[in-house]
Specification:
Layout (H helix, E strand, L loop, with lengths): L1 H17 L2 E2 L2 H25 L27 H14 L4 E5 L1 H13 L6 E6 L18 H4 L2 E4 L6 H17 L9 E7 L5 H4 L2 H4 L2 E5 L5 E5 L10 H6 L1 H11 L1 E5 L2 E5 L6
Parallel strand pairs: 1-4, 2-6, 2-7, 3-4, 3-5, 5-6
Antiparallel strand pairs: 7-8, 8-9
Helix pairs in contact: 2-6
């Protein structure tokens, strides 16, 4: 029976994962080559058929590159406030998260994919630790259809030049290939791992699209909220009261601390 339940769960998980836009770097580059070849052929045919007196216009991408790196609008008001303060003080746009960054990413991405935002998001994960299925338990309004607008690639970590190339390839993919999210606004790119400084190691147009970095260095550190101590319990009582202690940990939520303020999210968030 347990084996049958496990197989059924695996089958459901496989179907859900199949609806998430996940691609290798090779697949992204192949899509780009196909897209550029099609665009070139179309442009050539148009130029051949157009008379000299006819004015032609080029088709701009749905999400043209940003001229400068500006802070994104975050769907978590307190987080948006911190990002704005940080940008005013440093002129550095990305939200750089360190510590226990995954819970914040799950909360942020789930909010971005669902109404009223309904955005598309690109995610470059150099650690392969991000689990998209966790999003389904993070936001009650998130549907399996929304997951198709999270575009994930998991390239291997390499030299800074290699990692910068991976991020740039994802930007090109989001802008110029006919993926499923062309009708949604592209909010930006989330980069997990890699240790890159977007402002220094990426082209300006690509750096402008990097909205969040999550790595060992960052200006917002995320940790568990304060959990009440259970000093009055003996060893046997503590072992027997494991569920209550686990519930206390979960209800504590998560806390992001920075020089520009604090954000609380999860079960322990109060506003």
């Amino acid at each position: 029976m347990w084996a049958m339940q496990t197989a059924a769960a695996s089958s459901v998980g496989a179907r859900v994962l199949g609806e998430i836009e996940e691609a290798s770097l090779d697949e992204i580059l192949a899509s780009l080559r196909t897209g550029f070849a099609t665009a070139t052929a179309t442009a050539t045919a148009t130029a051949t058929e157009t008379t000299p007196s006819t004015t032609t216009t080029t088709n701009e991408p749905d999400n043209p590159p940003s001229p400068a790196a500006l802070p994104r609008t975050f769907p978590i008001p307190r987080l948006n406030d911190l990002a704005t303060r940080h940008f005013r003080a440093t002129q550095s746009a990305p939200l750089a998260v360190t510590g226990r960054h995954l819970p914040l990413l799950y909360t942020l991405l789930a909010a971005l994919l669902t109404p009223p935002h309904r955005s598309a998001v690109a995610l470059v994960d150099f650690t392969s630790r991000f689990d998209p299925l966790r999003l389904l338990t993070t936001h009650p309004a998130l549907t399996r259809a929304d997951l198709a607008h999270l575009h994930i690639t998991r390239p291997p970590r390499g030299t800074p030049a290699h990692m910068a190339h991976c991020i740039a390839a994802m930007e090109e993919y989001m802008l110029y290939t006919p993926h499923a999210s062309r009708t949604r606004p592209w909010w930006g790119t989330v980069v997990i791992g890699g240790g890159l400084n977007p402002a220094v190691e990426l082209p300006a147009s690509t750096a402008a699209r990097v909205a969040v970095t999550a790595d060992w260095k960052g200006w917002l550190r995320v940790d568990r909220g304060e959990v009440p101590a259970f000093w009055d319990l003996g060893v046997e009582e503590a072992l027997g009261d494991r569920e209550r202690r686990q519930r206390a940990v979960e209800e504590a939520g998560w806390v992001g601390v920075s020089a520009w303020g604090v954000v609380v999210f999860g079960e322990g968030a109060t506003g």
